[in-house]
């Protein structure tokens, strides 16, 4: 069943609920009491100022989101615009900020859970450990953290419809709360000690504390591709959600400090405390109303925590694709089809933060705010970089007004607000920033191929730029080895046009080069020295023929040629890939090739070593890339298949269909959830999504490929020898379908035993 049409039907209301739902959480149900102790009744103004700063940043998010609707959020914009140094800061900072925010939301959940269970047999105790004491609220938060991490680990998530219901239910409960609160509001309570008992200078520090309440509106940009008329609806949803939430916060916090004196406002469950007063004496509402408020608080904090953990996995996927972090962190669980390592690591951080910092909500809130404010500041600078570099493909449907003043103000306000936070929290957050920079220079710099629009702009105009700017860009530029090298082993250069076409398409999209290796096999009876006598003649002929092949392809991609004489044609492919440091190998598959698949005697060298790089093996049947079918169940080989599908989509406008096969109809819903998440994580949101229920995976793929011109399929997780000897899924499918097939296989860390006999 395809979800493409449903995805295109997301309207303005759905987009608004995404933004509102991610912001209304522990921010309103917990922070008013904490912030009131910092600033007094004037804390209402702090929430309004926080909303105004978020509004300026929302303008930048709207422009970037309509310019790159398939992007992976703030990290993607910053990495592409400012380069991988700032990409590392934003990606790792956003990830850590989400961990702090999740811990904060869990503490909020724990507070209301503890209150609900008080006086019952299920009341949570405090635990006196050797080095510290865990309060009952922290214990509740730990239970919540484990629950939310577990939910994400096994793949459960809210659907869009449920999210809309949750948000509307929350707004309904809060509306009843506000209406009852108006009957008890007293200006005398507000001004009993003056509007600002600690001075008006505390407004901005309190703003810095409560800014965590406005995190999440940027999430709307991640579903821009699914919106009807995103050029109009996305800006309205982003800006509108911030405006609506700001008004809600101002009204509710204003009511709270006008009902309960600010100094008596609970620091853990202020909304429940106020509701006990507003609903007191009202038949039925005094019991049901307070219970509804507590239920709403649990619902809101749970939704926010779950969304934060889910978002952290998406960020890690994006960083893994760009090689900012090891993509091994994003390995897909064989049963649950989730990035279990990433989720488990994020969960461990959340638990550490709950245990170590859970008794000081201000630290969790401000640490999350600082790291996100840094990301928002960098997003504003990214917008300026895209505009000033005049990138041709940067064509936003919405443009921020008063450019460049607006993004400059947004960046300034975001960084400026950090100055009003506690120094020890600033130091803690900046330590993560410094750690991100060190991570880049000691790890990511040698891995990532991304340079960034700003770096390219400066280096292209080096003569016009200050020497200091050019030197700084050069010093921070990635030093990953050279351009992307696509190796094509050929047995007959006269007939390798299709392979060259595919290889040059991949190289062109990755700014790489093609290295055609003509492997000439000589019998074992002939010495290589003797065979080498003809290399010069063969090499010259190969160069001419391969140049003709490139001319037929019609591309400016650089092509290198090498001729190799060997006794072992199949094994030589792997040796050559290592020797020439290939990033990708594109090879043919057929009975007429000396390395034809299906021979178990030849690939001994490959069996005893990990694959040297990514491999694409093409079985050609009138090669056509117009309609691509990509079956997936997760895993590194499916990730590689997705990369090729994106490459062909971007280069040739290919239509892509994703297929996920489940065992029976009872698994269809889980399969649809997995496929939608997988498509979003691999920048294939525009693909047609199909979930088939069948106990015969091979037959399901064969039937689905009937209307396709190209099947891209990942190698199985079993060892290669097992696949070749008794023929596994991927090889049988290749023989049965009518279209061309590309087999994709990515290097893995399988042991020798696993590569020989497969996993058990």
Classify the oligomer: single chain
Taken as a percent bin, the fraction of beta residues is: 5-15%
Largest sheet: 10 strands, mixed
Low-confidence regions: 1-9, 524-531, 594-609, 717-729, 750-760
Mean pLDDT: 79
Question: What does the overall shape look like?
Answer: globular
Structural class of the secondary elements?
Answer: alpha/beta
- Give the beta-strand count: 12
- How many separate helices? 31
* Spatial extent as radius of gyration: 29 Å
- The neighbouring-strand order within the major sheet is 5-4-3-6-7-12-11-8-9-10
Relative helix content: 55-70%
Terminal CA distance: 32 Å
Describe the structure concisely.
With 760 residues, this protein is of the alpha/beta class. The strands form two sheets. It has a ten-stranded mixed β-sheet with strand order 5-4-3-6-7-12-11-8-9-10, sandwiched between helices. A two-stranded antiparallel ribbon has the order 1-2.
3D structure, described in words:
By secondary structure, this protein is an alpha/beta fold. The protein contains 31 helices and twelve strands. Strands 5-4-3-6-7-12-11-8-9-10 form a ten-stranded mixed sheet, sandwiched between helices. α25 links the parallel β6 and β7. α8 packs antiparallel against α15.
